[in-house]
Amino acid sequence: MNQKFGVCNLSLIPLRTEPSDRSEMSSQLLFGDHFTILESKDKWLKILTAHDDYEGWIDRKQAEEIEHAAFVSLHDLNTILGISVTHIVTKASSSEKLHLVTGSNIPNTLDKFFYLRDTKYKLEGETIRPAKDKLRSAVSDVAMFYLNAPYLWGGKSVFGIDCSGLTQMVFRQFGIKLRRDAYQQAEQGELVGFLQEARAGDLAFFDNEDGRITHVGIMLDNETIIHASGRVRIDSVDNQGIYANEFNRYTHKLRIIKRV
């Protein structure tokens, strides 16, 4: 059987663990996120995302199938939407508007117009080309964009985000691909031996009582971290872990620090 591919053509859709609207949302797809179709079941598609190799189920009405050539083109894409609460694109044929979120993938534009499969869109704004060499100097500003965003399991936007979604979306602004879950991200990059050596943009990982990595945040310096816990917040961190000044206690136990 020939392999099938697809792309998200809505602003933000849920990726679920099972083919049911009642199933847990494990992640989200943004406009322009593309994927391989692994299985179809009634109204559901089981997919493998191209960005982070994550499996889950989506409602087939919230995406559209594309040819392999279009899949490859999207895979090589390096233009996304930058830091803004909302970006507007308009369907050229009907003037319908979509409000897209930060980090959405946008095919190369010509005079503000671009195509996603057969649909022509007009972008009201600008795209950016992520640059890895800007990570150290700009990561704090990008991370601060999400400050006070509410915690949402599986979320990837300023309207709701989880800890590894935060790190993934911040790093996307610099063209760095992180895996989806905290324990997967902990397998990337190089180990930083001591907290005192941590720099802005390093990732700090935290484990539970069973020793499983369950939380991640972005170091702003070697004493401060931004992370999603209840909301995206800034807390102190030391060799023991995250100390939440708001609660006057430690909330997460430090395991390792990685530099991606």
Describe this structure in words.
- By secondary structure, the protein is mainly beta.
- The protein has 2 domains: 4-128, Roll (SH3 type barrels); 132-259, endopeptidase domain like (from Nostoc punctiforme) (endopeptidase fold (from Nostoc punctiforme)), CATH 3.90.1720.
- 13% of the residues lie in helices and 42% in strands.
- The protein is built from 4 helices and 22 strands.
- Strands 17-18-19-20-21-22 form a 6-stranded antiparallel β-barrel. The chain has a 5-stranded antiparallel beta sheet with strand order 6-5-4-1-7.
- α2 crosses α3 (163-172).
- It is globular, with a radius of gyration of 19 Å.
Quick summary of this structure?
By secondary structure, the protein is mainly β. 13% of the residues lie in helices and 42% in strands.
Q: What's the total number of strands? A: 22
Strand percentage: 35-45%
- Derived from helix and strand composition plus strand pairing, the structural class reads mainly beta
Mean pLDDT comes to 95
The main β sheet shows up as: 6 strands, antiparallel, barrel
Note poorly predicted spans.
none
Helix content: 10-25%
Whole-number count of domains = 2
Order of helices and strands: EEEEEEEHEEEEEEHEEHHEEEEEEE
Q: Give the name of the CATH superfamily of the largest domain.
A: endopeptidase domain like (from Nostoc punctiforme)
In CATH, the topology of the largest domain is named endopeptidase fold (from Nostoc punctiforme)
| CATH classification class of the largest domain | Alpha Beta
Separation of the first and last Cα atoms: 38 Å
Total helical elements: 4
